[in-house]
TrEMBL record:
GO molecular function list: ATP binding; ATP-dependent DNA damage sensor activity; four-way junction DNA binding; single-stranded DNA binding
Upper taxonomic lineage: Eukaryota, Viridiplantae, Streptophyta, Embryophyta, Tracheophyta
Gene Ontology terms describing biological process: DNA strand invasion; double-strand break repair via homologous recombination; reciprocal meiotic recombination; telomere maintenance
GO cellular component, one term: Rad51B-Rad51C-Rad51D-XRCC2 complex
Domain RecA family profile, first and last residues per copy: 85-257
Function: Involved in the homologous recombination repair (HRR) pathway of double-stranded DNA breaks arising during DNA replication or induced by DNA-damaging agents.
Organism: Camellia sinensis (Tea plant)
Compartment annotation: Nucleus
Keyword Membrane: no
InterPro entries: HRR_RAD51_Paralog, P-loop_NTPase, Rad51_C, Rad51D_C, RecA_ATP-bd
Family according to the record: Belongs to the RecA family. RAD51 subfamily.
Keyword terms: ATP-binding, DNA damage, DNA recombination, DNA repair, DNA-binding, Nucleotide-binding, Nucleus
Annotated protein name in UniProt: RecA family profile 1 domain-containing protein
Nucleotide-binding keyword on record: yes
């Protein structure tokens, strides 16, 4: 769900006064509003001089929630949607595509997990260069990892054909939109702006959204004993899944690894995040594969798919 601040432009009643009232009661997003006792919240609003406007803000937030509910679909409608609108996008790497049963699936959020120097960004860039031949790619860069030069290396097959290479490179790079995103609030703002553009059909057809890396945005807000950070994490993840399903685009996010009990590495975002990805694959480095389904890219890197 949206942070309340991002709704102010479209819904003036959710102004700074309403946001401050909500923040004083631990409410920062529409999702936070859902888990509060609304009768208690209305009673608290009655104590303020601007009580009527605050109650109007609560009503407006609830109507936003109602308006975003998806219509009921039966099994046949879901099957038709999957067959007609949810295509598979090749990453450009044959072995990864094989493990993903063809590639990245539109309508799904796929997670790529691995420690530093495990080729996560390389996979993202290769997928970007391949999908951008067919449609637009939105690349949310959290660590200055996007490299047009690397994109060019993936595309150039014949160095002698300079004119042909230039034509292909120009077409592909025009289809890539890159944003620098350094915190989860900017991620949510950009995601909601993307949804708005997709809904109004502004620009070309976006086929792939990449967040490299989502864990670097979420990890800073997970500290402490409060639930606000986890609520933001679930809100961001759920919105990306919804974006993928409603607008038939593939979403690829990367997640780093941390040391767990006994020095065993595990994904950084923990158990609460596990319900978000629909599909995931891991790229450990300098580690012997301990899973049956894996493919070697070189002598030090292996991939695992979990679905």
């Amino acid at each position: 769900m949206a942070p309340l601040k991002s709704l102010e432009r479209q819904y003036p009643i959710i102004d700074s006064n309403f946001q401050q009232f909500c923040a004083s009661h631990g409410i920062f997003s529409v999702e936070d509003l859902l888990i509060h006792d609304l009768y208690v919240l209305v009673a608290l609003a009655e104590q303020y001089p601007t009580s009527e406007r605050l109650k109007q803000g609560i009503t407006q937030a609830l109507s936003i929630i109602d308006g975003r509910h998806q219509p009921w679909l039966n099994g046949m409608e879901l099957l038709e949607d999957a067959q007609q609108n949810k295509h598979i996008l090749s990453t450009g790497c044959e072995r990864i595509d094989m493990l993903l049963h063809g590639g990245l699936r539109e309508g799904h959020l796929t997670e790529l997990v691995g420690p530093s120097s495990s080729y996560k960004t390389q996979v993202c860039l290769q997928a970007t260069s391949n999908v951008a031949k067919m449609g637009e790619v939105v690349f949310l860069d959290t660590g200055n990892s996007f490299s047009p030069k690397r994109i060019a290396q993936f595309l150039i097959s014949d160095p002698a054909d300079k004119e042909g290479n230039h034509t292909i490179l120009q077409k592909v790079l025009k289809n890539i939109v890159c944003y620098s995103v350094y915190d989860i609030f900017t991620l949510l703002d950009v995601s909601y702006q993307l949804k708005s553009n997709l809904t109004s059909q502004t620009g070309g057809q976006v086929r792939l959204l990449i967040v490299d890396s989502i864990s670097s945005l979420i990890t800073p807000v997970l500290g402490g004993s409060g639930s606000h950070g986890r609520a933001l994490m679930i809100s961001a993840g759920s919105f990306l899944k919804k974006l993928a399903h409603e607008h038939n685009l593939a979403v690829l996010v990367t997640n780093h690894m941390v040391s767990g009990e006994g020095g065993i590495h595990k994904p950084a975002l923990g158990e609460s995040w596990k319900t978000i990805p629909m599909c995931g694959f891991s790229c450990p480095v300098n580690t012997e594969p301990t899973f049956a389904t894996c493919a070697y890219l070189d002598t030090q890197t292996w991939l695992l798919v979990r679905q």
